[in-house]
Amino acid sequence: MNKYILLLLFVGIAIPISAQLGEQRNNLAIGVNAGVNYNSVSFTPSIKQNGYMAYTGGLTARYISEKYFAMICGIQAELNYSQRGWEEKITDNTNTYSRSMNYIEIPFLAHLAFGKNRGGQFFINMGPQVNFLLNESEHRSTDWDTSTRPNGVIAQYGKMADNKFDYGILGGAGIEIRTGAGNFLLEGRYYFGLADFYKNSATDDFQKSSNNTVSVKLSYLFDIKK
């Protein structure tokens, strides 16, 4: 099923490139983006969590290929540094625990927008994303005691990721203000991870360990070619 989902996303990205039904555009823009992540990890067996807040930011390149009726079609790629991880919700004692996981992420997105060349536009971004884990670190309280965990899930403590390569599906929507001084974008995104960073066989500690991230990003792009 995951393979079919990714195939559909790649087809969706290819359509704006190959279609020749609308008014041709050749608009290339580059810039920067920055924002915050609200991350959690889907574990099986489950681990109670609070949302983990962290930073994300990087570089953006976007190419608008055509306008078909009211819809502006293009593709967008990014190279981002993204902080993820999880924070456990421990209610049985005074322990605290969180894990920071720092990734390089590369999304490949279909960009669909509605609006005028100058002024406001509403847009949707969607497509696959690949990620590479750079490093990770644990943060735990000094009064550390795992003997009273109600569900008995403690295998994650001291256990670093087995898989550094991660992939998933990204979707987002936002508004863009296009001005003579550049383009300003505000976007909300959701990333659904399809890979597990721990080994997930029947004999391993976890059968699922995938990232889920809600992001809010601000971007600034300037046109290289109109």
Q: State the helix count.
A: 1
Percent helix range = under 10%
Task: Tell me what portion of residues adopts beta-strand conformation.
Answer: over 45%
Radius of gyration equals: 20 Å
Terminal Cα separation, in Å? Answer: 39 Å
The dominant shape is elongated
Order of helices and strands: HEEEEEEEEE
Strand numbers in spatial order across the main sheet: 1-3-4-5-6-7-8-9
- Averaging pLDDT over every residue, what do you get? 89
Structural class label: mainly beta
DSSP, total strands: 9
> How many strands, which pairing sense, and closed or not: the largest β-sheet?
8 strands, antiparallel, barrel
Low-confidence stretches: 15-20
Describe this protein's structure:
This protein has a domain of 122 residues. It is elongated, with a radius of gyration of 20 Å. Strands 1-3-4-5-6-7-8-9 form an eight-stranded antiparallel β-barrel. It starts with a helix and ends with a strand. By secondary structure, the protein is mainly beta. The protein is built from one helix and nine strands.
Feature tags:
1 helix, 9 strands, single chain, 226 residues, elongated, mainly beta
Helix and strand arrangement:
Elements: H1 2-18, E1 23-44, E2 49-50, E3 52-68, E4 71-88, E5 97-115, E6 119-140, E7 165-179, E8 182-193, E9 208-225
Antiparallel strand pairs: 1-3, 1-9, 2-4, 3-4, 4-5, 5-6, 6-7, 7-8, 8-9
Give a brief rundown of this model.
By secondary structure, the protein is mainly β.
